[in-house]
Write a structure and sequence with these properties.
The chain has 260 residues and is an alpha/beta fold. It has one domain: Spore Coat Polysaccharide Biosynthesis Protein SpsA, Chain A (Alpha-Beta Complex). The chain contains eight helices and eleven strands. The strands form three sheets. The protein has a seven-stranded mixed β-sheet with strand order 5-4-3-6-9-7-10, sandwiched between helices. A two-stranded antiparallel sheet has the order 1-2. Helix 1 packs parallel to helix 2.
Length: 260
């Protein structure tokens, strides 16, 4: 407790402000200059006590420079500059390591193009009272996708069914990237043994978290179309990641995965 003076002179007791858990929200960026500033603003509006980490892969459009400007203007913003386009999975992993090195309690990963809207953050963080990983889920009541073609919907649903069956994961959305992790559990999850660096990273890290006893929770989100810029999805990476998912899933199903 701290003591202060009332405007009439009486001494009053001022209760301490509880900032809550230390939260790091990580954004992997490559050519997201048009989205970055409003997204960081909206994140910090929804969760004023959070910190934001921008992991930029040397974006040609100047995203990294803008991130440095945001950092200079607000101590809650941090930046990691990488030498080139090294992949989404490795960018998220870099954010996880930053969270562990700097003793954050919760680590949030989300897309930097507004497909994951910051308005869902309060519900996601509230769910951490009963979970170790909270997933922004497209596949529970209240969740969904915006303007996806049928081919993309079928692929996403198919991958999720496959992963849930092979890896025995008790979650409806195992491939989405909007998640909150308990950092103490990430320390146990043997992230040094991760094989994935592309889109299959999401399934593998969820499987590794489950292996160390993480309770999984889900909160509904609507996955929206990006606000600005071009998509980074390419067919080569999709095919490669699907192959990795099949390899990891088959090994997990038959108990052949090397955990230690």
């Amino acid at each position: 407790m701290t003591r202060g003076k009332h405007h009439l002179g009486e001494e009053v007791i001022v209760p301490p402000t509880d900032p809550g858990p230390r939260v790091l929200v990580s954004l992997a960026t490559y050519n997201e200059r048009d989205n970055l500033a409003p997204l960081v603003h909206d994140i910090l509006t929804e969760v004023p006590t959070a910190h934001v980490l921008v992991v930029d892969d040397n974006s040609p459009d100047g995203t990294g420079q803008l991130a440095d400007e945001l950092k200079a203007a607000d101590p809650r913003v941090h930046v990691l500059h990488r030498s080139g386009k090294l992949g989404l999975g490795s960018a998220i992993l870099a954010g996880m390591r930053y969270a562990m090195d700097h003793d954050y309690e919760y680590f949030v990963s989300m897309d930097a193009d507004y497909s994951h809207h910051p308005r869902y953050l309060p519900a996601m963080l509230a769910g951490m009272n009963k979970a170790d990983v909270m997933i922004g889920s497209r596949y529970i009541p209240g969740g969904g996708t915006e303007s996806w073609p049928l081919s993309r919907k079928l692929m996403s649903v198919g991958v999720n069914l496959l992963v849930r069956m092979l890896m025995r994961l008790p979650a409806k959305d195992c491939s989405g990237g909007f998640r909150c992790y308990r950092v103490a559990k990430l320390r146990q999850a043997r992230l040094d043994r991760l094989r994935s660096r592309g889109y299959s990273f999401q399934q593998e890290v969820l499987y590794r978290c489950r292996r160390v006893g993480c309770r999984l929770g889900e909160t509904p989100i609507v996955f929206a179309n990006r606000r600005a810029g071009a998509t980074k999805v390419n067919s080569h990476e999709v095919v490669r990641s699907l192959g990795t998912v099949l390899l990891l899933g088959t090994s997990a199903f038959f108990g052949l995965d090397r955990w230690s």
